[in-house]
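Put briefly, the fold is written as integer tokens. One such record reads:
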Amino acid sequence: MATVRVGPPRRPLAGSFGVPGDKSIAHRALLLGGLADGVTTVLGFPRGADVLSSLGAVRALGARVDELPDDALRIEGCGHALGGGPATIDCGNSGTTMRLTAGLVAGGGGTVVLDGDASLRRRPMERVADPLRAMGAGVETTDGHAPLTVRGAALRGIEWTLPVASAQVKSAILLAGLRAHGTTRVREPLPSRDHTERLLGHMGVRLARDAAGVAIAGEQRLRGGDISLPGDCSSAAFLVVAALVVPGSELHLTDIGVNPTRTGALAILRRMGGAIDVTKTHDVAGEPRAELHVRAARLRGTHVTPGEVPGTIDELPILAIAAALADGETTITGAAELRVKESDRIAALEQLARLGVGVRATPDGLSIHGRGGRPLVGGRVETHGDHRIAMAFAVAGLVAEDGVEIDGAECADVSFPGFYARLAELGAQVERG
């Protein structure tokens, strides 16, 4: 387990650069490219551990994937023959790989075993198994968790209402619906990220979308093509908060994805007083992207409501760091889903107390008493193998008097390879143990 100490920068953060390609879209581009007819080229592919798990999954299911120069991939799709034979797939730490692949292979002819690391084995899988069983697939979990065995079958369309908003479960049902007979309709209590729907449309699939959910007609085929990935909005959020809380900083982040289902954190940070300008918005491959211009600002506390949680679920750890530096109290409610992410993120964020922050955990959120711009105290924290916890506390180290020592820091590579190197380039003190 690697230890990294991150301390205050020697100068304000400044510069213009991009971030790795969007992890969420990359997963979907790989899986849909494998199921498509013809060749799919993915541009701007990030090489984080999670998306490499999906790359391995697509290869295990029979698709050929060639890695090209300049972060590009070439996928030779198998069409609906994908996953026709037996396969055992190691999903690593990636819940997206496991849940989406389960839906992808539910309509195939093979038996696929999906497993992962100790962290992934703790995450709930009945929420995806239940709808796939209702469609006709044979799905077995291990006491509700991985390993997960999916026996592909002839599927029928269903109407399914998600008890908890989940882009992963919604996507799994839609992928199964592609090979089902009849129409599959998914309703959700709150809107979750819609990358799957956008990418399906880009690849020639007809969908019906309304405020309540999405419907897809079965037995449709995907058309291969070019997919250019924007910079990952969730990864960018860590640098956005870094620029906001380090006095005198100014960053320009280029080609960042600004899908409306992913920009909730930017809206919350603006409400807190963050100076964030979004410019030059345009669409590529069905996904909006833009440039972000961020300047240091005095932040104030806010209330993150349950309705805002689905659009900020991956950014809540870094929002907690912003809250720790803000004036007044910040409360987060309706975020019980944080308990079953890569770690129990609510419990992990209680470590803010080690840095001199008043923090109180609740079953579904946090109450954080900000330090009003005063620096944090130094301390040592554990990541519990969670990449977003690692990066959040690294940003905290930028404004801690004695820095923050992060145990298990290497997990940041899951979504942002080179994250600590980027902080060092910006002038942060980064020492590896």
Q: What stands out?
A: The longest helix spans residues 23-35. Residues 23-225 form a domain with the UDP-n-acetylglucosamine1-carboxyvinyl-transferase; Chain fold (CATH 3.65.10.10). Residues 62 and 100 are 16 Å apart (CA to CA). The mean pLDDT is 96.
